[in-house]
Design brief:
Helix content is 83%, strand content 0%. The protein is an all-alpha fold.
Length: 146
């Protein structure tokens, strides 16, 4: 038997050992990861609620309508503002995490935020409005924490 054969056998054996260990840890690891995700979602929920409530108040709608399935043009900007704040200002949610409470696919969020970024670069009033809403959400979160 040559050195190359020994190395090859060792590599194969270690690969199978790693695979077997991963299979054994699979369900346990999946459970731990699910629990971590639940804990993260529980921690993020107050942020989603505060952002949605503030945006809904500013645009004379309700949190339920903002989070709901309605696709009226009237709700495009408020939703985009809420999504933008969740993505770029508060905890940097992932696209799927943003989409889930709104009942939207993560690609919907991605496309909407790309378009919103373009508007944001052109519109000074929108940037000022966003800063006001961001400050109000931060104040709301501080009040709830106290």
């Amino acid at each position: 038997m040559s050195v190359a054969d020994d190395v090859s056998d060792f590599a194969l054996e270690s690969m199978f050992t790693r695979a077997r260990k991963q299979m054994e840890l699979g369900p346990a690891l999946r459970h731990v990861l699910q629990e971590l995700e639940r804990a993260r979602c529980a921690r993020l929920l107050p942020v989603v609620v505060a952002v949605c409530e503030e945006v809904a108040d500013r645009y004379n709608t309700t949190r339920d309508i903002l989070l709901g399935p309605t696709v009226r043009k009237l709700l495009c900007r408020p939703r985009a503002i809420a999504w933008w704040l969740l993505k770029f200002r508060f905890d940097q949610f992932s696209y799927p995490q943003i989409g889930k409470p709104f009942g939207r696919h993560h690609t919907t969020i991605l496309v909407a935020l790309a378009a919103f970024q373009g508007l944001l670069q052109q519109d000074d009033r929108l940037r000022a409005e966003l800063q006001d809403i961001e400050a109000a959400v931060a104040a709301r979160l501080i009040r709830r924490a106290a």
